Amino acid sequence: MSEKVFPASKPAANGTAGTNGTAAAPAAAATTVPNPTAATNKSHLYNPTSRLPYRPQPHNRRRRTRSGRSICCCCCFWTILVILLLLLVAAIAGAALYTLYRPHRPAFSIPSLRIHRLNLTTAADSATSHVSTLLNFTVIAKNPNSHLSFFYDPFTVSASSGDVFLGNGTLPAFSLSKKNETSLRNVVVSGSNEVDAESVNGLRSDLKKRNGVAALKIQLDTKVVVKVGKVKTKKVGIRVTCEDIKGTVPKGKAPPSVAVTAGSKCKVDLRIKIWKVTF
């Protein structure tokens, strides 16, 4: 009986049987099928010519800070420039007004002075001394300005010799118009004061060294208003100091002695502003 021949195992799909009866590996298994999606992603990542998706950038705060600083610097510059221009205009206007009006301080002088009494007495205990004084003099006030007028309040007058206060007096109020002067006669300064013995001894020693000649100082204090056209300033203080007045002290019942005032100088201390100009 003949043998039946059975076919070999199932042939491998898409392949040929091997010589040893085993199925050969399919050709398709040797190679992998490329993934189109992966290829697309790789080309997108590594292609330098491809465009990246738009992403909005955060706001630049540094630019805003710099712009704010530039505006602040600009404002400061223009403010300083305007202030400098205003100061320059004020200086030019003040110089022009000063040149036009040429303000000058008033002038004072004492042409004559008489010493009626100047007595120095010391107590028995030498602790205190007494000074009795009577002076009479004339004051001349001048206004050298062509555009300014002065209005004076009442004056307070005081007299001294060295460190010793001799007495005081008053002067009535008056005014001086442009380029005018006035003479105030019979200005009386009197006093009867208790003074420390040391000061009186020093004055007595000076009188002996100068053969009875006393060096006097007269001081006048008041307030004044200056008028320029229709403009008036506020009241300001003024002090007039007249020094280097020398007079012989009369003794006993001798007549009043006439002091020498030719070399005396009167200093006027007045600081007043007119349109930013001080004189």
Automatic annotation (TrEMBL):
GO terms for cellular component: plasma membrane. This is Late embryogenesis abundant protein LEA-2 subgroup domain-containing protein. Residues 1-63 are annotated as: Disordered. InterPro entries: LEA_2 (IPR004864), NDR1-like (IPR044839). The chain crosses the membrane at residues 71-101. It is found in: Membrane. Residues 141-242 form the Late embryogenesis abundant protein LEA-2 subgroup domain. Keywords: Membrane, Transmembrane, Transmembrane helix. It is a single-pass membrane protein. One of its GO terms (biological process) is defense response to other organism. Residues 11-41 have a biased composition (Low complexity).
